């Protein structure tokens, strides 16, 4: 298995015997995270809307000896989030890690040009998916007395031209810090990463001309690098960390 995904993870087996649910696992950071955690021993449950890309990631995981199943559905709807966790429990009997990666900005424009439908779509995609999945997985983690949730925010909460997306991701930060306080005594950790620009398959998803000045290191992070940060926060190496927002590549994710 070493070298099939990321040579930097070779030999690490921090997730042996664990089950990880990855939302948005069919592409981008979600795909890299699914592969990374599988490489480190986790059984993977991908929650996504796109069968083709999810099947491809799942096949790659199985090819290098990992275990993976898929639950398809729009996770901005409660019933699909609940079905995703039910799929994990019916297949593997536990949920040790939830990585809420599904989401991402749709439009890039001044706020006055957003239609109500566009605002709702941005909030559904980048806030409600994480909210419902946290709620759906929590009873299972509470019952087993352990678990780790990693949400994905963004440095764009201080940016421009994506107000609904920024609001949705700021909501994930608030959900992280509040929920972490509620469940820490139950053995459950909740953390968040806030990436700056991340290299994407679709160049239109990244606008270097308008955002390069926001990134201190002057380059986009790779999906595998974001996956490594998620793996750290989800692992026993971070067993003392909860309620934290880790800025990845962009300094502080918010100015307070």
Provide structural commentary:
The structure is a single chain. The protein is an alpha/beta fold and 256 residues long. 41% of the residues lie in helices and 15% in strands. The protein contains 7 helices and 7 strands; from the N terminus they run βαβαβαβαβαβααβ. It has a 7-stranded parallel beta sheet with strand order 3-2-1-4-5-6-7, with helices on both faces. α1 packs parallel to α2, α1 crosses α7 and α4 runs parallel beside α5. The termini are far apart.
Helix count, DSSP H or I runs of 4 or more residues: 7
Secondary structure class reads: alpha/beta
**Uncertain segments:** 201-210
Estimate the helix proportion, in percent.
40-55%
* Strand content range: 5-15%
Distance between the termini: 42 Å
Rg computed from alpha carbons, rounded to a whole number of angstroms: 17 Å
Mean pLDDT across all amino acids: 86
Give the SSE string: EHEHEHEHEHEHHE
The description of the largest β-sheet is: 7 strands, parallel
General shape: globular
User: How many β-strands, per DSSP?
Assistant: 7
With strands numbered from the N-terminus, the spatial order across the biggest sheet is: 3-2-1-4-5-6-7
Give the SSE map.
Blueprint: E1 19-23, H1 28-39, E2 43-48, H2 51-63, E3 68-72, H3 78-92, E4 97-100, H4 116-144, E5 147-152, H5 163-183, E6 188-195, H6 208-211, H7 223-234, E7 245-248
Parallel strand pairs: 1-2, 1-4, 2-3, 4-5, 5-6, 6-7
Helix pairs in contact: 1-2, 1-7, 3-4, 4-5
Organism: Geodia barretti (Barrett's horny sponge)
Family: Belongs to the short-chain dehydrogenases/reductases (SDR) family.
Pathway: Lipid metabolism; fatty acid biosynthesis
């Amino acid at each position: 298995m070493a070298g099939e995904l990321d040579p930097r993870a070779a030999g690490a087996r921090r997730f042996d015997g664990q089950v990880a649910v990855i939302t948005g696992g069919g592409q981008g950071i979600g795909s890299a995270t699914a592969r990374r955690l599988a490489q480190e021993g986790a059984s993977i449950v991908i929650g996504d809307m796109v069968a083709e890309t999810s099947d491809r990631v799942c096949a790659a995981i199985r090819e290098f000896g990992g275990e993976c199943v898929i639950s398809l559905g729009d996770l901005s709807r409660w019933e699909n989030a609940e079905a995703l966790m039910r799929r994990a429990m019916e297949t593997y009997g536990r949920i040790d890690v939830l990585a809420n990666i599904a989401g991402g900005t749709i439009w890039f424009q001044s706020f006055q040009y957003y239609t109500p439908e566009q605002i709702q779509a941005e909030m559904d995609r980048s806030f409600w998916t994480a909210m419902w999945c946290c709620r759906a997985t929590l009873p299972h983690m509470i019952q087993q007395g352990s678990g780790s949730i990693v949400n994905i925010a963004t440095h764009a909460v201080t940016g421009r031209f994506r107000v609904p997306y920024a609001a949705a991701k700021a909501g994930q930060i608030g959900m992280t810090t509040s929920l972490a306080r509620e469940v820490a005594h139950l053995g459950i950790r909740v953390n968040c990463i806030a990436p700056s620009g991340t290299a994407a398959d679709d160049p239109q998803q990244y606008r270097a001309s308008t955002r390069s000045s926001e990134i201190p290191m002057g380059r986009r992070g790779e999906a595998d690098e974001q996956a490594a940060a998620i793996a750290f926060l989800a692992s026993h190496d971070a067993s003392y960390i909860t309620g934290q927002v880790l800025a990845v590549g962009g300094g502080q994710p918010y100015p307070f």
